[in-house]
């Protein structure tokens, strides 16, 4: 799919999903009160002509709050589900849904940061989220989709190929692997129909793009294996190699490899999350 307008609509959907899954802000309030959020959502999925995606987006639009009281409740609902201030237990970080711990997944975090760096992107100054936060990853794909539209419009076929491959790799290696597990957690732990519908939407969006780009993400298992599983499932001497015993062993290295820079791109910006002021 190389039509620039299709990529613009893809970019908008990822952006709206990032905005809605971030901590609610005045921008989201205004978009919901004016029905702009719902209208843009439905307009973009209609342009992509995907029945599953259209159904998911229409459900989000039907469940999204649009009166001041309901929108105000969205603030407390978000905090209860995802916010640290009220002990929200639904994690919005990729590492939380895969095997291992934050300490053992530094390679995965480095791989994600490598994707951003390849396009000269970074988190905004003052943004204290990790690179594997849901909204940051959605924002990144939105940026690449918009960049694809620009390159297609200007006839840069090589540029389109580079950015398309980056999107395919990122969906296959990251978003596509953990979002199904995230959706299951939302459905299990959240009673709010809006966030449930929103989780269905992002999974449908990523699945549609994975199919479009010809990739099949290996979804994380429902119950991640223990970080020590590689040690306990094999025979051998696991004593420290510096203690005078046999050779020490360590788990195999992770899959995260730094991507080489894809070359010049149409812009060099800092990457905001959904509720930030935008690229600068």
> In one word, what is the shape?
globular
The biggest beta sheet is recorded as: none
Structural class: mainly alpha
- Let me know the number of strands: 0
Q: What is the top-level CATH class?
A: Mainly Alpha
Q: How large is the share of residues in beta strands?
A: under 5%
What's the CATH H-level homologous superfamily?
TorD-like
Region (Disordered): 215-280
Keywords: Chaperone
Protein name: Anaerobic dehydrogenase-like protein
InterPro entries: DMSO/NO3_reduct_chaperone, TorD-like_sf, TorD/DmsD_chaperones
Task: Report on the architecture of this protein.
With 280 residues, the chain is an all-alpha fold. It has a single domain (4-227), classed as TorD-like, CATH 1.10.3480. The chain contains ten helices and no strands. It has helices spanning 4-21, 26-33, 36-48, 51-63, 68-81, 106-118, 134-153, 157-189, 193-213, 229-232. The protein is globular, with a radius of gyration of 20 Å. The two termini are 29 Å apart. Residues 248-260 have a biased composition (Low complexity). Residues 215-280 are annotated as: Disordered.
């Amino acid at each position: 799919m190389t039509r620039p307008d299709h990529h613009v609509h893809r970019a908008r959907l990822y952006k709206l999903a990032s905005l809605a899954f971030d901590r609610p802000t005045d921008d989201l309030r205004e978009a919901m009160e004016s029905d702009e959020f719902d209208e843009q959502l439905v307009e973009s999925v209609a342009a992509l002509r995907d029945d599953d995606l259209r159904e998911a987006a229409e459900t989000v639009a039907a469940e999204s709050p649009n009166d001041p009281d309901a929108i105000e409740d969205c603030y407390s609902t978000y905090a209860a589900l995802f916010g640290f201030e009220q002990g929200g237990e639904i994690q919005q970080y990729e590492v939380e849904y895969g095997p291992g711990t934050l300490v053992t997944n530094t390679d995965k975090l480095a791989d994600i940061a490598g994707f951003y760096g390849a396009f000269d992107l970074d988190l905004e100054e003052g943004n204290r989220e990790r690179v594997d936060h849901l909204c940051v990853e959605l924002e990144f794909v939105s940026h690449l989709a918009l960049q694809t539209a620009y390159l297609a419009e200007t006839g840069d076929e090589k540029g389109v190929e580079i950015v398309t491959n980056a999107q395919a790799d990122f969906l296959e290696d990251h978003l596509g692997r953990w979002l199904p597990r995230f959706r299951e957690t939302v459905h299990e732990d959240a009673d709010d129909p809006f966030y449930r519908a929103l989780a269905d939407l992002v999974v449908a969006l990523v699945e549609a793009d994975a199919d479009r780009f010809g990739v099949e993400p290996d979804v994380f298992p429902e119950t991640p294996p223990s970080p020590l599983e590689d040690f306990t499932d094999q025979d051998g001497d696991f004593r420290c190699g510096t203690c005078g015993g046999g050779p020490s062993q360590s788990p195999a290295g992770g899959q995260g490899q730094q991507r080489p820079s894809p070359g010049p791109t149409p812009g060099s910006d800092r990457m905001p999350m959904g509720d930030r002021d935008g690229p600068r």
